[in-house]
Amino acid sequence: MKIVSIILVMLVPVCVAHADAPLEGKYVISGPLDHNGSTKSGRSHIYFTITNDAAKKMFSSFDEKPTLSKCTGWNYKSQGGITCHEVESGKNYFCSFSINLYNGAIGAGLGGCF
Question: In the prediction, which pLDDT does 4 show?
């Protein structure tokens, strides 16, 4: 139940602010990320990837200016442990983050470079 509460606390503000965008994406339960950005075996983290309109709106809602990643060539913005990527301007976005299931800490998600 603790994990459900954490997820709701994190996602409700996003959903309320942008209620017109359906929440699409996926999640994976696995171990921590290694130094290459791949997950290790285990069940210590839940990784969320938000896609499509919700990701585009999240990217746009972050106040900072986009930063160009030297690793991926994509623009990105980060806020509160959530990173949103602009893969193709105006068309293709995703946001990612993880929750450590042991301590509730928000951390890096899947899909970037390390």
Answer: 45
